[in-house]
Amino acid sequence: xxxxxxxxxxxxxxxxxxxxxxxxxxxxxxxxxxxxxxxxxxxxxxxxxxxxxxxxxxxxxxxxxxxxxxxxxxxxxxxxxxxxxxxxxxxxxxxxxxxxxxxxxxxxxxxxxxxxxxxxxxxxxxxxxxxxxxxxxxxxxxxxxxxxxxxxxxxxxxxxxxxxxxxxxxxxxxxxxxxxxxxxxxxxxxxx
Length: 192
Ligand code: ADP
Ligand code: 5GP
What we know:
Layout: E1 8-12, H1 19-28, E2 34-36, E3 39-41, E4 55-57, H2 60-68, E5 72-79, E6 82-87, H3 88-96, E7 100-104, H4 107-116, E8 121-127, H5 131-141, H6 146-160, E9 168-171, H7 175-191
Parallel strand pairs: 1-7, 1-8, 2-7, 3-4, 8-9
Antiparallel strand pairs: 3-6, 5-6
Helix pairs in contact: 5-6
Adenosine-5'-diphosphate is lined by residues 13, 15-21, 137, 140-141, 172, 175.
């Protein structure tokens, strides 16, 4: 009999906080048995991103069709005209492989997943030291125009205000400390 009970690990934060860096580290820890939930998005690929690995890059029209046909577990227009969403079939695909699902999604989407699967989900908020540091990190990441960076930073204060609604908050000041904390939390949650 298959006794596997799939869990969901959500990492949310304002853009530039470091959640992708932390999630990628956790995915490399094979003993955790995690697989990344590949979201669909209507935004353009950035940097080295690969379709079907980092995101399913689709047009806004296709995205809206999928909303109509109820294919999303959750979706958000995170920035104007930039849609992002988790496809229902993504979760079934990963659980069918006997893996736990890890998400890198915005705060509203993260809280929605927690609400839908309260006991199976660990929802983690990654907190940057302050907004100035976010700006520095986004500039250093060097993948977007100043306008796109400004759009991301403008949203950060409202996103920061949602932190207390998460199961736990990790401060990402020193990256190594934040990664160690994340790894321990996830390991404990998956073992419980
Ligand atoms: P997010 O996924 O939250 O948008 P990223 O993981 O892409 O954030 O991180 C944004 C940038 O900040 C990246 O260039 C990353 O290497 C860098 N970064 C992440 N954590 C830290 C940290 N603790 N100190 C300095 N830079 C960091
Ligand atoms: P980025 O453009 O930097 O990849 O992502 C922008 C924001 O959208 C980030 O906060 C990211 O976590 C979030 N995001 C990515 N995928 C999803 C998703 O499937 N659903 C929701 N709600 N947000 C997502």
